[in-house]
Design goal:
The protein has 62 residues and is an all-alpha fold. It has three helices and no strands. α2 crosses α3. The longest helix is centred in the last third of the chain and has 18 residues. The N and C termini lie far apart (52 Å).
């Protein structure tokens, strides 16, 4: 079932605000990251972005 025109336009507006950064960990590392995100009750993207922000803050302060 195709998405509505309004939904497509909203998706396009949202995607225009986003950057795309791909990572390709080996499967075993990817599973560890997914499991850690689930254990923290976070989405995979949210977990990774939080980890990156925290490291950026640490390195900025040092």
């Amino acid at each position: 079932m195709p998405i509505s025109e309004t939904k497509r336009k909203n998706n396009d507006r949202y995607n225009a605000k986003c950057d795309f950064i791909a990572i390709k960990p080996r499967k075993e590392i990817g599973k560890e990251i997914r499991d850690a995100a689930a254990a923290a009750g976070q989405s995979l993207q949210g977990y990774i972005l939080q980890a990156v922000r925290e490291r950026m803050e640490r390195e900025k302060g040092g």
